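Tokens help. Consider this.
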Amino acid sequence: MATNGRAEQRERTRRTLVAHGRRLFAERGYADVGLAEIVAAAAVTKGALYHHFAGKADLFRAVLAEVQGEVADAVAARADACEDPWDRLTAGCRAFLTASTAPDVQRIMLVDGPAVLGWSEWRALDEASSARHLHEALSALVAAGVLPEQPVAPVAHLLSGAMNEAALWLAGSASPTGLEDVWAALSRMLESLRAA
């Protein structure tokens, strides 16, 4: 019983650190948040932080994984609600763009993520979350003949890059119709991929 209680306490401490780290990273960005501030907000010691994470970058990695997982879950939920493979693709793409308009998602996932972890590690985390769903949706469309027979990986990377860039553009745009403008442009791009 005591071991179980300690494990639960460790998990609570870890969740608290991730939650406070996420809030602070979202509010001010990775570079402007110190470890002392995170542990003070979480009401734990630096030793407790180092018990769970190798340092600030490791805590950020956990925060980023949480954010990417939430976005991937939102994408999957919207896509899986559709029967038609084309509707699954478009619903998933729109869900990604919508989720990416949240300021904490933009700051953590799209701005600080690649800068803090480096492009390769950030891309690997992206591949394991939202990009995986995109690849699956495109593969289903090729198999169904909706898209021409072709290697799916290049198309998935191109669309993923386009959506990440669109999300970054939305982050800096003051346009009240920004999301709808991006969606209209992306819809035309997606339609151009369809088999004749």
About this structure: DSSP finds ten helices and no strands in the chain.
